[in-house]
Design a protein that fits this description.
This protein is of the alpha+beta class and 225 residues long. The protein has a single domain, classed as Ribonuclease Z/Hydroxyacylglutathione hydrolase-like (Metallo-beta-lactamase, Chain A). The chain starts with a strand and ends with a helix.
Length: 225
């Protein structure tokens, strides 16, 4: 789905833990080619490729991947995508050790071990970086809480926020981070307040997809305690 000219939501329907799940990475057209914001689970590159094809796009045109954070549903097939495309990997410097295999994933436990194939982070972000895109500048916004180095992407010209897991859509309503899968809920709410400082008319969430809600609703979420 086209979120704004040059920015495409990629709804992916996959099987996860014996259930069907829907994930929503993003493809952004840039002067260098496609920049993917997140990918998908291990072994699901084909699903990602099909979603790109539905938008008239090709995985082979991906020159970069912005990984919002380390979770399997966002970075699980990152190594495969990089092997296929030689894409440049961007991630916050705090997330880099997890993606490169130096540090165990935050949500990995003895009862449910988790791991992804280590992948080099070519460019370590600190926040505030701007990418040139077909939709105008895209700002990388640090939104920690869900994970230590989580980031979101903001397109000011389109008043569009790609929130990854900083926000969620449930039954058509924009809501805050899910407490049961958020590492630091207080920090996540502070991150929502950071997002509320921007002019947002529409939000695209990795879980729940597109919603015509923005700054006013995000302010309400940030105020929730």
């Amino acid at each position: 789905m086209e979120l704004t000219p040059g920015v495409h939501g990629l709804p992916l329907r996959v099987s996860m833990d014996d259930r069907e799940a829907m994930f929503n990475p993003t493809a952004v057209e840039t002067p260098q080619g496609l920049l993917l914001i997140d990918v998908c689970l291990p072994g699901e590159v084909g699903v990602l490729e099909a979603a790109l094809a539905d938008e008239g796009l090709s995985l082979d045109d991906a020159w970069g991947v912005l990984v919002t954070h380390q979770d399997l549903d966002h970075a699980g097939c990152l190594a495969t995508v990089v092997d296929r495309t030689d894409a440049v990997v961007f991630a916050h410097e705090v997330e880099a050790p997890y993606l490169e295999g130096e540090t165990e994933l935050v949500k990995s436990t003895e009862e449910r071990p988790m791991a992804i194939e280590p992948t080099t982070v070519d460019v370590r972000l600190t926040g505030g970086e701007t990418f040139a895109t077909a939709a105008g500048p895209m700002e990388v916004v640090p939104t920690p809480g869900h994970s230590p180095g989580h980031v979101s992407a903001y397109f000011p010209d389109a008043e569009l926020l790609v929130s990854a897991d900083a926000l969620t859509v449930v039954d058509g309503e924009l809501v805050g981070p899910r407490p049961e899968v958020t590492q630091d809920l207080d920090t996540a709410r502070e991150s929502a307040a950071t997002l509320a400082d921007r002019d947002v008319a529409e939000t695209f969430c990795f879980h729940g997809g597109r919603v015509a809600a923005g700054t006013e609703r995000i302010e309400e979420i940030a105020a929730e305690r």
